[in-house]
Write a structure and sequence with these properties.
Length: about 290
């Protein structure tokens, strides 16, 4: 019998975390601080930048097409940035924060100059968190939020668009597109015509090959079942006995982090000071 409360929920983020390091997956998605009963999150400047820019762009989809750019995206960024300003965004100094916000402004200036699909009609999935049963038999739910669904009125189809604020291109074997593809198929009625990654830093909207539906379900269920087994056995070992994925969270458990607030989803938000000069320099490279 299916039960959402006992089901294993998986998403692009949780699957990626588990594939990189099961220990990191545990610390991000399972562990709760005994003192607060909250999950924990490490905030970093790149994450803050991504959150603020996504907040601005995703918010446009609920507006009529002729109203989306009536207010400058830079003004919208100023409002969104308030949520991540200072230590809440992992910024250790004003200069670092200025550099990251400037990068966000550059991305949004580029979008205002060439809005492309953001000028067109968009579809909003009528669910607070898009989700469906990947396997009722195994009690596994797949969930996730889609950045943008461009609507093609001529044939009643949609275009999946994912905004990228980092420099790196998505790996070819990434499960992100299969996840989003299935979510769109299951959570709204229109067929998917195309899918693209929009690399905002490079001003590139790059169309991707649509995944095979059956193969996507097979691949995702295979990983989800491994995650479920890990949870049942309570076995979440780092394959490297410590790695860059789990190390920041281990530092928090050892008392190194600074609690700077509680996030939107009741996560305790921590920041970590760079351990050495090289780390400090890396933290502001854009």
């Amino acid at each position: 019998m299916k039960d959402k409360y006992s089901a294993v929920w998986v998403s692009h983020t949780s699957i990626s975390d588990w594939l990189e390091c099961p220990r990191a997956y545990f610390l991000k998605h399972v562990y709760k601080d005994p003192a607060t009963n909250h999950k924990i999150q490490v905030m970093t400047p790149p994450l803050a930048l991504g959150q603020a820019v996504h907040d601005v762009l995703e918010g446009l989809s609920v507006l009529p097409t002729d109203k989306r750019f009536s207010v400058s995206l830079l003004e919208r960024l100023d409002e969104s940035w308030k949520k991540v300003s200072g230590k809440r965004g992992g910024f250790m100094d004003a200069d670092s924060e200025y550099r990251y916000k400037q990068r966000g402004q550059d991305m949004l200036r580029s979008v205002m100059s060439n809005p492309g699909p953001l000028r067109h009609k968009a579809v909003k999935i009528n669910m607070e968190l898009p989700q469906f049963w990947l396997s009722e038999e195994d009690n596994i739910i797949l969930c996730g939020r889609i950045d943008w669904l461009e609507y093609f009125e001529e044939d009643d189809t949609v275009h999946i668009i994912d905004f990228k604020t980092g420099k790196r291109h998505e790996r070819e074997d990434s499960l992100q597109l299969p996840i989003y593809y299935l979510l769109v198929l299951e959570c709204q009625k229109r067929a998917v015509a195309k899918a693209s990654y929009w690399y905002l830093m490079n001003e590139e909207l790059i169309e991707q090959q649509l995944p095979d539906e059956a193969e996507s379900r097979r691949r995702l269920l295979e990983v989800a079942l491994k995650i479920k087994t890990s949870r049942n056995l309570k076995k979440f070992d780092c394959p490297h006995s410590g790695c860059r994925a789990c190390e920041p969270y281990e530092r928090i458990l050892h008392g190194e982090g600074e609690l700077v607030g509680v996030g939107e989803f009741n996560h305790d938000i921590y920041i970590l000071a760079p351990r050495d000069t090289a780390d400090a320099r890396d933290s502001i490279v854009l």
